[in-house]
Amino acid sequence: MTQRIYDQSRRDFFRKAAFAGLGLTLLPSIIEAKSEELTKVRLGFIGIGLRGSDHLALVLRRPDVEVTAICDIDASRIDIAQNMLKKAGRKPAQVFTGSETAYEKLLKQTDVDGVIIATPWLWHAPMAVAAMKAGKYTGLEVSAAISLQECWDLVNTHEETGVPLMILENVCYRRDIMAVLNMVRQNMFGELVYFHCGYQHDLRHVKFNDGKTVHASGAEFGEKALSEARWRTEHSVKQNADIYPTHGIGPIANYININRGNRFVSLTSSATKSRGLHNYVVAQGGEDHPNAKVDFKLGDIITTVINTANGENITLIHDTNLPRPYSLGFRVQGTKGLWMEDGNTMYLEGVSKPHEWESSLPYLEKYDHPLWKKYASLSEGASHGGMDFFVMNAFVEIIKRKAPAPLDVYDAATWSSITPLSEVSIAQSGAPQFFPDFTRGQWMKRKPVFAFGNDY
Amino acid sequence: MTQRIYDQSRRDFFRKAAFAGLGLTLLPSIIEAKSEELTKVRLGFIGIGLRGSDHLALVLRRPDVEVTAICDIDASRIDIAQNMLKKAGRKPAQVFTGSETAYEKLLKQTDVDGVIIATPWLWHAPMAVAAMKAGKYTGLEVSAAISLQECWDLVNTHEETGVPLMILENVCYRRDIMAVLNMVRQNMFGELVYFHCGYQHDLRHVKFNDGKTVHASGAEFGEKALSEARWRTEHSVKQNADIYPTHGIGPIANYININRGNRFVSLTSSATKSRGLHNYVVAQGGEDHPNAKVDFKLGDIITTVINTANGENITLIHDTNLPRPYSLGFRVQGTKGLWMEDGNTMYLEGVSKPHEWESSLPYLEKYDHPLWKKYASLSEGASHGGMDFFVMNAFVEIIKRKAPAPLDVYDAATWSSITPLSEVSIAQSGAPQFFPDFTRGQWMKRKPVFAFGNDY
Predict the structure, then answer these.
(1) Contact in structure between B446 and B293 (CB atoms under 8 Å)
(2) Residues A45 and A166 reside in one and the same domain
C-alpha cells in the first residue's frame, strides 16, 4: 500500500492536477487513471467523537469502504466505534490512542488510503498537514484552519505533496442547496448579484453541559464538561470573529465559482455585544457560578460582508449564542429574481406574478439535482437530512478514482480564512481585510468542478 | 400670525426644548403651553407632486387643518391640488409657482403655521433650512439631506431658530412596526442585540417611464421623463451609496433610542455591481436607446452594517434595481428571541416551542399599539396602509400643541447621514465611517419620546 500511495506516477498526477487547475479540462486524465481505480477504500478515522461517529456510521453502510484504523484520545469513544464496527459485521480497527500525537502513528499505517479528521478545531490544520505529508487522502471537517498561516500551511503542503485535501462541507450537498445550484446553472436567476447566508444555530446547549451528559443542561465548559463543550466553547471565550463560516459560505462559493473564475477580494466584519452565553450560564448555574465571571469575547451576532472579484456581495452571519430556531438564512439573488430560504419564497421575473412571492417548494422539487435523484434512497437515514451521505460519498469516490477533491484545499483555505480576517476587521472597527489569493492567480484559469459528475 | 410665531415666549420654549433634550421630562412644560393650543392649523405645501398630494388628501380629511398655500413649479400639479381642495369643499389655496425659488414667497406668508416639504431630494435641506428660519413648523419628507454639511445645516438652523423640524418617516408608524415597538418596550425580546432592515423595492418602473404616463413602461429619465423619474433616477446615475435609508433605519432607531440614550457610532458599506437599471433600459428601449450608454453608479444592492454605542448592530439593505417583491426585511433580535418580517415569524424563548418558529401574526394583533387602536378607523383609506395618517397626524398635533417633534431634526440628520457616510465607505472598499454626533453629546441625557403620548 505504501508503494501504491507513493507510486511516482500517481504522485506526478497529484502534482500536475494541483498546479494545472483541477477541473473539467482534466477529466481525460482522471478517466485514464480509471484503470487503476480502487474497488475498496481503506479509511482511518482521526477523532471519533460525535461527528466522527456520524461519518463512521455512514461508511459502515458501504461495502466499498473498510475502516482499518481509528484514533481518539478518549478511550470511551474508541469503545463506541469498535462496537459500531462489530455491529456492522466488520473487523475491529487498529486503535491509536493514549496521547495527543497518537494520530502520527495512524498516519504511518500502510493499510490506510484516506483519513477523516473530525477533531477539535485547533487540531484540524496540523493533522491535515501531517496526513497530506503521509500521502493519505485527507477528508477534513469544518472549519479547516483558524489562522491565515494555517490556511497557507494546508495549501503549501498540498502543493508540495500533491495529495488532495477535501473539506467535508456537508451543507454544499443539502438538497435545497443543490436544487438551487441546478437552477443557478440553468441561469434561472440571471446574473448572480447578491447573497445572504450564515450559521444561525442556538448552540448554548452545545457550548455548555453538566459534565455528565452531552447536550443536557449545565453551565460547564472546558475540562469540567463533556464533548464539544470541552473545547469548542473556548473559541467563544477568546475569539471575536466569525468562528464557523463554512456552512454558509461553502454553498455560495459554489454558486459563484470562487477560486474557479472568481475570488473573494475583501470583507468587513462587525460584532454585537456579547450577552447570550453569560445569560445562559447564569440561568443554568446561577450568578455565583464560576463561569458567570467569564468574559465571553464572541459577540452574539457577527456580520461579515464579502466582496468578490466579479462584483457580487455576500452577507454572512454567525449567530450561535441567542435563543432562536435553526436557519442558515440563505438568499440567492440575481438579475432575474431571488430565492430566500426563510419563508421558502421565490420570485422569478416573467414567471412569478409581478411583485408577489411564490413558494419555493415546487421549484426545489422540480429542480432536484441529478445527484440527489440518483442517491436519495441511499442517503435515507444519513445524518443532517441525508447531506452527510453525499459529502462522504464524494470523499470515498475520489479516493477510488484517485481524483482531485470537488471541495479542495483552496476552498478550505479561502472559506476558513474568513475567521482570522473577520477577527482583525472587528478589532479595527470594521476595517476591510483583503483575502490572500491562495491559488496564486490560478483562479483565473481554474474551472468549476463541484457536482458536475454522475457519481459525486 | 407672524406675531404669534415669533412670540418671544414661544421662541424661548422652542430653544429650551431644543437644548434641554426634548422628552418625557419636558411634558409639564408642554402641558403648560396647552392654554395657547391652536384649534386650527394652517398648512402650506411645498411640492405637490404624487407624495405631496398624498399628504394633501390626508389633511383635507381633517377639520382642524386649513390649507392656505401651495407651491409647485409644475402648474398641472397646482391645478390638481386646487381641484382636491375644491372637491373637499375648501377655499382655494394661495399659489406659489413660476420659479424654483417661489417657495421663499410662500414662507413669508403670515397665514402658514407649518409647511410640508415633498420635493426632489436636492431641495429638501435648503427648503427646510429656509422654513425653520421663517419660523414655520417644518414637516420634511425623507431623506432629509444628502450631504453631511446639509445634515449639520438642519441641526444648526434648528438650534439657532428653535423651530421644530419633523422628518415625515411614515414607516415608523406602520402597524406591525408599532406593535413590535410595543413588544420591545414590554421587554419581550429581552435586551436588544441585532437588526435587519432596508429598502427592498423594485423601483425600475419609478426610475423610468415613457414621458407620457407615470409608472408605465419606458426607458426615459431626467428631462424626457415624468414625475420621480425626472429627478430621482439621477441619484442612481451619480451616487454609489444607500441613497434612501430612512424607511429601514427609522423604525430601528426608535426601538433602540438613537439620539436618546444611544447613538450610531460607525458604519461600513458595500456595493454590488450595477446591472439592473442598464438591463431594464435595454429591455424597455433596446440596446440602441441612448440611456443604454448610461453608466449607473448605484450598485444593485448596497449593504450597510451600523454599530451603536450600546453595542447593537444593524444590517441595512438598499435594493431597488432588481426584480423582487417589496419588503423592508425587518428583523428584531434580542436576548429572549426574535421577530422576522419575511415569513412572518417569531420566536420567544420559554414561550414558543423550543427551536421552532411560530407565526408572528397573532402577536402583532395582540400587541397592537395603543395609537393604532385609537386611530385605526380614522386611518382607513390613508395611503401606505394607513401609516401616512399617523405621521401627518403627529405633525398636525405638534403644531397645535406647540410641541417638539417626535421624530426630530437630530433623527433627520442622523438617519440621512447614512447616505454620504455609505458613499465614502464604498469608495474606500468598506472602510468604517464614523457618525457625527449631531446632538453634541446631548444624546446621553435626552429621553425617548416617540409614540408615548395618547394623541400621537
Answers:
(1) no
(2) yes
Q: For residues B161 and B192, state if they share a domain.
A: no
The Cα–Cα gap between B59 and B57 comes to 6
pLDDT at B11 over 80: no
CA distance A135 to chain B (A): 41
The enclosing domain of A39 has a CATH number of 3.40.50.720
Q: What size, in residues, is chain A?
A: 456
Residues of B in contact with A337 (CB under 8 A): 323-324
Please indicate, yes or no, if residue A212 is contained in any of the structural domains: yes
| Closest chain B residue to A321, measured at CA | B335
Q: Does the pLDDT value for residue B298 go beyond 70?
A: yes
Which grid cell is B371? 395609537
**Residue where a domain terminates, one of B170, B198, B216:** B170
What residues contact A156, with CB distance under 8 A and at least 6 apart? none
Nearest to B356 among A310, A325, A429 (CB): A325
On whether the CB atoms of residues A427 and A274 are closer than 8 A, the answer is no
pLDDT, tens digit, 9 for 90 and up, residues B206-246: 999 999 988 678 999 999 999 999 999 999 999 999 999 99
Chain A neighbors of B299, CB-CB under 8 A: 313
Which of A322, A332, A358 is the best mutation test for B, with the most CBs of B within 10 A? A322
A224 Cβ partners below 8 Å, 6+ apart? A211
Mean pLDDT of B443-448: 98
Tell me the CATH number at B285: 3.30.360.10
Q: Chain B closest CA to A411's CA: distance in Å?
A: 22
Backbone phi, psi, residue A144, to 5°? -80, -30
Which of A312, A325, A430 minimises the CB distance to B305?
Answer: A430
Residue-averaged pLDDT of chain B = 93
Please name every residue paired with B70 in a beta bridge, in sequence order, or none if there are none: B45, B95
Same domain flag for A106 and A229: no
Instruction: Summarize pLDDT for A243-261 with one digit per residue, the tens.
Output: 999 999 999 999 999 999 9
Q: What is the mean pLDDT of chain A?
A: 93
Contact residues, chain B, for A319 at CB < 8 Å: 194, 333
Q: What is the mean pLDDT of residues A433-448?
A: 98
Contacts (Cβ under 8 Å, ≥6 apart) of A61: A88
- What is the model's pTM? 0.93
Cβ–Cβ gap B355/A311 under 8 Å: no
Domain that holds residue B190: 172-369+408-444
A325/B355 CB distance under 8 A: yes
pLDDT at A213: 87
